[in-house]
Structures are given as structure tokens and as C-alpha cells.
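Can you please make up a protein's amino acid sequence together with its fold in C-alpha cell form to help me picture the idea?
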Amino acid sequence: MITRTVTVGSAMGLHARPAAMFATAVEQTGLDVVLRHGGEEADAASALDIMALGIAGGETVTIGVDEEEASAGGASAADDAVEAIEAKLDELAALLAHDFDAADGV
């Protein structure tokens, strides 16, 4: 599994607005991303699943994608796919680290 660990930047945690924005961003990647927190796992493309984890601001979460998504198409294609997945996870991690509850939180 390719993962990123990130501290949630929204002061109020992953409530409806940041959860929905994150879930939408995950959907746009086309990847099956999971969000892990406190020993539980959620479908990161589902705002409801994200909110059910009860993640507060400043808590650490892990997002991940199964490497099998990158393995189709041979070694060279797999290497390129892993790089693309890693880049998308970096973007998603940056989104989670952003404080959507700040005055300029857009």
C-alpha cells in the first residue's frame, strides 16, 4: 500500500464541509483511497464515511492506495503508475493539511 500520513489542518476537524471537499477530490483522482484513523478505516470518497471517523483538528490520519492499482501493464507502466499515485496522494495530503475553518479557508 502506498500511504501518506498527515495532520488534519482544519481546526474543527473533518466535519461536513472539509469532508465533502476531500471526498470530491478523492473521487476526481479515480483512485480507491482509504482513510485510516484510530484503528478504523473509511472509503475516502465518501464524506459520510469520513465524518463517521470523528477526526478532530490536529489529529493524524493516514491515506492510502493499494499498489495493485499500479501493477497492470508491466514493470515500466507500474513504475509510472506508482509515481502518478504518489503525486495524487501528495495533493490529497496537502488538502487534508489545509485549514478550511480559517477565515481564508477556501
About this structure: Strands lie at 2-7, 33-37, 40-43, 60-65.
